[in-house]
């Protein structure tokens, strides 16, 4: 049986980084993947989603082009099939890059389903990607669980008639009438993507505003923009069942108030759960809570040789945080002087048609501990003037009145994720509003507004 220093189960963003940094620090490392090299982000998440966002955006750019003097007309239809083929080619290329990156680092790759036999032994057997894989056992001093998460379907009659984001990336045709349940990251992003590609989208959610957990003003602004993008919103609703119409021709979504909607596809975007099936966690006694592995930011579980990183431990559930957790764990184990990250001021983006970027605290979160000065600005970006495209940008700074430190920055509008990534440095460095004001504006840009907002819109006292 092969004896390793570290064995990583799951070759997604966190697992790959952990394996690579451990190997760079001289560890003998193995990694197992059962389905997709590169994991959710590369295969069923960030990468294909962002390519779809670009596809939807391109349609809108063609629409706007005549306003800038281009003699073009938007084609009647979006070629879903050729786009999907191009997307799959890109993902195949990335799969290859992941495999060669791991091999070059001297890591032993196992394709198959891995499960724990005991606190130091892993068994790898056949999986969807390797149905004929031989059963092998490996021993390792340390084991890292990095299997990520998988979409949740609501427990309602007919739930199997719905699809999730996993299936959406491979549908043979683009559904024309779509009902999306849930207004979190995935619901909002796919509403924008599918509407941009020409589908008729209805978005159902149980709150009064979409995107629970984000700043209230951002959520209210987003709600207006969702309307402007032609998406029909149904706030305050919950689905109770799905029914088949015409033997697979359509699906009927029935709500708690008795109303029903017939559509070509229902997408459940109702959260994700840890991917722990067949991992053998019970047999080893790894402590779980609400379906997730209990582990700290250092990855430690209750079993000294077993660690968990990324979505399986359900804390941040983002690709860059899984990468940082994987990197920090590898350094902690094999190079204790290594790199660390600050998780306090996490930048986040929602890639809606008018994207959202945020870093640090929302006004509601900040007001629990601080007296605040709030700076907001809404305006029509220059690019939208000639095509007369509606939809304003929202920019917002949440500032601690006492220290003048910028606690949070929020933006809804073109390039918000790009702009907020840079502003995240300032928020992480705890820069003050005065220091932002001392920065010369870059003109003409949208981002300059973050250094030109002079007068607070309002003061908010600590709650
Ligand atoms: P989210 O947790 O973001 O949103 C879940 C949605 O489902 C919410 O609107 C929630 O409503 C709703 N919901 C949950 N349970 C029910 C129920 N029983 N009945 C009705 N509605 C329900 O999950 P997503 O699936 O959108 O995304 C999963 C994770 O993937 C995110 O947490 C995020 O970390 C990650 N992700 C990140 C992206 C990015 O960084 N851009 C993109 C895509 C995914 P309510 O608010 O009322 O609870």
TrEMBL record:
It comes from the Bacteria. Its cofactor is FAD. Its EC number is 1.8.1.7. The keyword Aminoacyl-tRNA synthetase does not apply. It is an enzyme of class 1 (oxidoreductase). It holds the Pfam family Pyr_redox_2. GO terms for molecular function: glutathione-disulfide reductase (NADPH) activity. Keywords: Disulfide bond, FAD, Flavoprotein, Oxidoreductase, Redox-active center. Residues 5-326 form the FAD/NAD(P)-binding domain. Residues 347-453 form the Pyridine nucleotide-disulphide oxidoreductase dimerisation domain. NCBIfam families: PRK06116.1 (NF004776). Belongs to the class-I pyridine nucleotide-disulfide oxidoreductase family. This is Glutathione-disulfide reductase. It comes from Bombella pollinis. The gene is gorA.
């Amino acid at each position: 049986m092969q004896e390793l220093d570290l064995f990583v189960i799951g070759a997604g963003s966190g697992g790959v980084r952990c394996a690579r940094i451990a190997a760079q620090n001289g560890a003998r490392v193995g990694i197992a993947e059962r389905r997709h090299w590169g994991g959710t982000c590369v295969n069923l998440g960030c990468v294909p989603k962002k390519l779809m966002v670009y596809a939807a955006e391109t349609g809108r750019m063609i629409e706007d082009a005549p306003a800038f003097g281009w003699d073009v007309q938007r084609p009647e239809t979006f070629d879903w099939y050729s786009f999907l083929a191009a997307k799959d080619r890109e993902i195949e290329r990335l799969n290859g890059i992941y495999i060669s990156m791991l091999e070059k680092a001297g890591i032993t790759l196992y394709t198959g389903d891995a499960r724990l036999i005991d606190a130091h032994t892993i068994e790898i057997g056949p999986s969807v990607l390797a149905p004929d894989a031989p059963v092998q056992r490996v021993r390792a001093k340390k084991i890292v669980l990095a299997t990520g998460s998988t979409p949740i379907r609501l427990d309602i009659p007919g739930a199997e008639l719905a699809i999730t984001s996993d299936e959406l990336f491979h549908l043979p045709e683009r559904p024309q009438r779509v009902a999306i349940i849930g207004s979190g990251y995935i619901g909002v992003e796919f509403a924008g993507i599918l509407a941009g590609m020409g589908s008729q989208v209805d978005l159902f959610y149980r709150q009064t505003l979409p995107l629970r957990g984000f700043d209230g003003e951002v959520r209210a602004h987003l709600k207006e923009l969702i309307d402007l993008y032609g998406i029909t919103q149904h706030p305050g609703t919950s689905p109770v069942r799905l029914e088949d119409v015409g033997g697979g021709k359509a699906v009927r979504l029935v709500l708690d108030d008795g109303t029903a909607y017939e559509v070509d596809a229902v997408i459940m975007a109702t959260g994700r759960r840890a991917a722990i099936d067949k991992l053998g966690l019970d047999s080893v006694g790894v402590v779980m809570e609400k379906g997730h592995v209990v582990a700290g930011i250092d990855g430690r579980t209750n079993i000294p040789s077993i660690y968990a990183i990324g979505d399986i431990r359900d804390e941040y559930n983002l690709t860059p945080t899984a990468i940082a957790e994987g990197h920090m764990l590898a350094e902690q184990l094999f190079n204790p002087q290594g790199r660390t990250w600050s998780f306090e001021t996490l930048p986040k983006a929602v890639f809606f048609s008018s994207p959202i970027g945020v870093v640090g605290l929302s006004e509601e979160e900040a007001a629990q501990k601080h007296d605040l000065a709030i700076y907001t600005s809404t305006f029509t970006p220059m690019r939208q003037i000639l095509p007369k495209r509606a939809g304003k940008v929202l920019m917002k700074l949440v500032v601690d009145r006492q220290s003048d430190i910028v606690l949070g920055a929020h933006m809804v509008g073109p390039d918000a994720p790009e702009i907020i990534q840079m502003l995240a440095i300032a928020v992480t460095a705890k820069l003050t509003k005065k220091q932002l004001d001392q920065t010369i504006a870059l003109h003409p840009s949208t981002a300059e507004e973050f250094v030109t907002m002079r007068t607070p819109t309002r003061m908010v006292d600590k709650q």
